[in-house]
Write a structure and sequence with these properties.
By secondary structure, the chain is an alpha+beta fold. The protein is built from 18 helices and 21 strands.
């Protein structure tokens, strides 16, 4: 999109293994019932500049209560903000230093932990601890070099469990997990380059032994602007395949918003005025309206002069200007949405009611209107948010943080935070990083190539193994059992569990590394055969594994069993005998061994 002056920067957040950043709690995530809950209210405080951050102030205005769920054995007083943080996790710092070295970044001589004000409830303390470790690194892409402006080590936020208009519920298991945060300069100029840069950084991170692997352990934020536009931060892009679409849609959204601004450059909105229109809807057929009225809610409306036809204008696929206004109302007032004149009559609101609204609001042909159906104070707050956003339409594109939606569109989250949210952490001592002991591991690309060249894995299987959380177990087993083909080890660790999940609806996550070590030990000792590995893993998942069931028979025992089968089914064709033999000897020997032995015995019988 060179004609748009597209500029993109990305932020990568990668979780690390081991212990949490400021305590000794494990970094495991849990789904069982919590042992205790805490309830908090959070307040925004001034940063080092003496100012309160605009994003923090907006969150405080929502006046939500935050509930935190914790576990007696895996969360502690640090997560609850009832005890000062412990020393910075040295292992997490070392992994961050490895990444800094890999991208040739300048490592800061002194690492100082800072507090970053966060009032959305995702941290019990009301701030997130973060430390700058490296600057001025870079990576190469097919479309040019991408500069890395900052590499930080910070603590992950709490995991949101549920939310209502009055409160948010968070889980403390994720809070405090170490994160490497990598931010690039806005050097990316195309959606495809954005994806390539994110993939390259992801590959470098997965080359480090200290990083977590698996779904949800890495996430991307994208910053997008076009010529004449504003930096927009898009949060929560977990799928690399979605990145190009997010960038494309955001560039299109900004382009259309700038076009609307130009078209409306002479327009000035009338003063903000709210009208109570409840009486017009006493006999309405709208289910939404009737349900709200029964709960003592109101129908409030306002006029937006000069905006008729614009609220229904598409900014990008599946997203209109009316969606933009609704997004503000949803976040700032907690309403489910809005009605606007460009989409009515609809939703049970009749043409007669639309005309009555226009008369009540004194709408001309070029005027639009917006309705909100909710409790009166909530509806008024929603209309204030809509009016604020409508005013910004005439001024340009407001800088803001938006959430990535599954279809590639985005929705409003909060204003862009600024430097006002930062101030020093006084409970954690300064750290002087030791850069002399940093050893860079094999990169992911190098590992994948080695698996192909030295271990005979296919390109796809090499990539699956190298990127999986079983990579270190694979290396261990391939080295320990050289007589077993590495490709079979890789398929057993990666492909077979996926087949079990897909075909048998069983949970392969129940298979531990010790289970796999045990299975390959039995395989090496000829106590089980590789042909029945699927059955062994299924029994391990079910908890019904019994080695006696699968113990491989000796050659003499197999021959005796085959002799009995031939005798019992004299004159039967080979295929029938083979089927009977496989059923009777299931798990006792490989199909090839049984087939070869059976053919030999039949041949000898014919000669006799």
């Amino acid at each position: 999109m060179p004609d748009l002056g597209l500029k993109v920067g990305i932020e990568i957040h990668q979780q690390l293994e081991g212990k949490k950043l400021f305590c000794s709690c494990p970094t495991i995530l849990r789904d069982d019932s919590p042992d205790f809950t805490l309830r908090r209210k959070l307040r925004a405080v001034a940063g080092e500049s003496g100012q309160i951050d605009v994003a923090a102030a907006e969150e405080q205005h929502k006046d939500k209560t935050f509930v935190y769920e914790g576990y007696a054995d895996t969360t502690c007083l640090v997560e609850a903000d009832e005890e000062p943080p412990h020393e910075l996790n040295s292992a997490a710092l070392y992994t961050t230093l490895q990444f800094c070295t890999a991208v040739k970044a300048v490592i800061t001589p002194v690492v100082q932990v800072m507090r970053k004000t966060v009032i959305d409830g995702s941290n019990t303390s009301g701030f997130q601890r973060t430390a700058l470790v490296g600057r001025q690194g870079s990576i190469d892409t097919s479309q040019g070099k991408i500069r890395i402006s900052n590499i930080c080590l910070e603590e992950d936020a709490g995991k949101i469990v549920s939310e209502t208009a009055a409160e948010r519920v968070f889980r403390l298991d994720r809070l405090g997990i170490p994160l490497i945060e990598i931010g690039t300069e806005p050097d990316i100029t195309s959606p495809q380059q954005c994806q390539e840069a994110a993939r390259k950084i992801g590959y470098l991170l997965r080359s480090l032994p200290g990083v977590k692997r698996g779904l949800g352990t890495i996430r991307q934020d994208v910053n997008v602007s076009i010529r004449g536009g504003t930096r927009i931060e898009i949060k929560g892009a977990q799928d690399l395949r979605q990145l190009p679409l997010l960038v494309e849609y955001e560039a299109q959204r900004q382009k259309e918003l700038l076009a609307i601004k130009e078209e409306l450059k002479k327009l000035k909105l009338v003063s903000f005025a709210v009208y109570n229109l409840t009486a017009l809807f006493k006999s309405s057929s709208s289910t939404i309206i009737q349900k709200t009225l029964q709960q003592k809610g109101k129908v409030l409306g306002m006029k937006l002069n000069g905006l008729a036809g614009f609220l229904g204008k598409e900014l990008c696929a599946h997203y209109r200007l009316g969606s933009e206004l609704a997004g503000r109302a949803k976040v700032k007032a907690g309403v489910g949405g809005i009605f606007h004149s460009d989409e009515l009559p609809n939703y049970g609101i009749s043409d007669h009611e639309v005309q009555a609204i226009k008369e009540e609001l004194s709408c001309g042909l070029k005027d639009a209107f917006v309705l909100v159906v909710a409790e009166e104070h909530q509806a008024r707050r929603a209309l204030e948010a809509v009016y604020e956003r409508a005013q910004q339409v005439l001024q340009g594109i407001p800088g803001e943080v938006r959430k990535a939606n599954p279809d590639g569109t985005t929705s409003y989250l909060r204003p862009l935070p600024g430097a006002a949210r930062m101030y020093p952490e006084t409970d954690v001592p300064l750290v002087i990083p030791d850069t002399k002991t940093i050893i860079l591991p094999e990169t992911l690309d190098e590992k994948m190539q080695r698996y192909q060249d030295q271990l005979g894995l296919s390109r796809d299987l090499a990539e699956f193994v190298a990127k999986s959380n079983k990579v270190f177990l694979f290396e261990e087993l391939a080295e320990k059992y050289p007589s077993i083909k590495p490709a079979f080890i890789a398929e057993t660790l990666i492909s077979t569990p996926l087949d079990i999940k897909r075909q048998y609806q069983l949970d392969p996550e129940k298979l531990t590394d010790e289970n796999f070590r045990e299975v390959f030990h039995y395989l090496q000792e000829n106590k089980i055969h590789k042909d029945i590995m699927l059955d062994v893993l299924i029994d391990l998942i079910k908890g019904t594994f019994d080695l006696k069931k699968y113990a491989t028979l000796g050659t003499e025992d197999i021959h005796n069993a085959l002799k009995e089968i031939i005798k019992e089914h004299a004159g039967a064709p080979f295929a029938a005998l083979m089927g009977i033999a496989m059923k009777r000897l299931q798990g006792k020997a490989s199909g090839k061994f049984i087939s070869d032995a059976l053919r030999k015995m039949l041949s000898e019988a014919q000669k006799a």
